[in-house]
């Protein structure tokens, strides 16, 4: 019996190590994606096409991490057949990496706008303040979503979901001012559209960060809040203590 | 022994029934989402805000289906602990419904543009041909992706992925002509932007349909082609017969 117990402990230690490892890989992927977004925004603001090309090339690594982590998840499910909270963790990881991969895509899209902006030269800089501001806002959201995941911190996750509403309203106001800008000087239509696409990408990053935070809430509370309005969110999460 | 065999058969029949059921629910969700996209495009082209509101309201049902199917998948994984191809099927379903849910979101976005266009009145109809064309193209892609899933038809899935490249080029050309249109008549900037956002949404629908087709390829061939260039796709899939 002693022998069997120590065997079981051994298996369970291995299993925990595997879960830790896949969680770490997810956080590593998250860190990379966070960098990609930061660099993409910098490249756009500074018209730095070298940095932009670096971001575009870096997307391959993001994609590879997604594939690797997905395989790790499948392997764990097949071999360990986890139950309850372990199963939820693996499923959440497999969803979160989809969001991270798409944030990586948005970083590439922003970088492609940066390359175009650098080629066009000129300065239709009216929205650079907004791009910087919204860029740093969604960067914070992403960092907090990943921290919330690492620590299984529901409060931080809820704050991230709520922050997305601010980003949406900042985005809408930036877009309105860009439309006005275009109308006042139609020669700026081309470059201003580029800035609009970049802003749109940043707004999508906020959505994905919010999705990640929602997975944390599901993981910890077993509560699916993907389609709950932010106003009802705090109340629902508190009910499910 | 006979008793045990028939018990095993019973379990396995139940398990197959559960897999069939979740697959059917996915196809049902796919059918609904396909309708949502079709209606959203119609509402935009005909400035039919009644139909557009129907689409916006219908998104709740799409979201609910996603949640239900996700729960069904978790339940199967927890109770049946499937292996090999059954495990791959459940994981693929759980990824595909994420794409379907996002196609549903794009349908809502298009419908919101339709409501705005109907309010604004007027007619900046230059891109209606393109919207109709790209709309029916991505509608076809989605239908084929879902058929490929239902029949596990790799060839059809490959065709769907390749079709996405055509959509991308149609999209790029439609966007160029809209930019020209805006520049020639800056009074149209507002409504034309609305059409651009709608086109962008349709282009995203194509991406998601392509993702679904990629999951079919993974399911049947065990080959992850998510980040393979379309030119290399046919060769890679043939190698993995």
Features:
homodimer; 241 residues; Methane Monooxygenase Hydroxylase, Chain G, domain 1; 88% helix
Largest interface: A-B, 30 and 30 residues
CATH topology type of chain A: Methane Monooxygenase Hydroxylase, Chain G, domain 1
User: From the 3D coordinates, which CATH architecture of chain A would you assign?
Assistant: Up-down Bundle
Helix content of chain A: over 70%
CATH superfamily of chain A: Phosphate transport system protein phou homolog 2, domain 2
**Overall pLDDT metric of chain A:** 91
Distance between the termini of chain A: 39 Å
Major β-sheet profile of chain A: none
Total domain units of chain A: 1
Q: Report the order of strands and helices of chain A.
A: HHHHHHH
Globular, elongated, flat, extended or rod-shaped: what is the shape of chain A? flat
**Structural class by SSE content of chain A:** mainly alpha
Oligomer: homodimer
Total number of strands of chain A: 0
Strand content of chain A: under 5%
Rg over alpha carbons of chain A: 21 Å
Provide a count of the helices of chain A.
7
Reading off the top of the CATH hierarchy, the class of chain A is best stated as Mainly Alpha
- Stretches with pLDDT under 50, minimum 5 residues of chain A: none
Task: Give the secondary structure arrangement, pairings included.
2 copies of one chain form a homodimer.
Chain A: H1 2-45, H2 49-80, H3 84-120, H4 128-151, H5 154-184, H6 189-221, H7 230-239
Summarize the structure.
The structure is a homodimer of 241-residue chains. Chain A has 241 residues and is mostly helical.
